[in-house]
Design goal:
Blueprint lengths: L2 H17 L12 E3 L3 E7 L11 E7 L4 E5 L4 E8 L1 E6 L2 E6 L3 E4 L5 E5 L5 E8 L5 H7 L5
Antiparallel strand pairs: 1-2, 2-3, 3-10, 4-9, 5-8, 5-10, 6-7, 6-9
Length: 145
Amino acid sequence: MSTVDSIYKGCESDLERVMQVEKSNVYSVKGTDFPAGRCIRVLEGPGALIEAQNFVMGHVTLYPAGCVPLHSHEQEEVYLILSGKGVICINDEEQNVKRGDYIYISPGFNHVLNNTSNENMIMIFCYAPKSIVEHWKLELEGKLK
């Protein structure tokens, strides 16, 4: 067996994984508009085109003056601000956020994100473990503002 053959032989399992890559486009995912002024596209998770085993990830457009209402959940979470600016409050600690900022939110911490600009704020969220968080349902039912 040549050196090239032995290298390839060792990579077969990696090649199989590469062949199983699932790809989509964020803008092909149907979004859900929420009363607090945002649209969520679940990219990875329950009911998504692609379902990860252990986490949920989504793309959020917060419209001007829109927000992610005050809530908490058992999952740890990260917000990544892709564009725009606003204010996040986690357990009464308020900070300005802007493009490029990412924020870690510990499990059980109360948090709210407000778009304070006249332009859309775009952000990505990722939380684990995987589930559908209760605050989405409560907001859609008009019980959370």
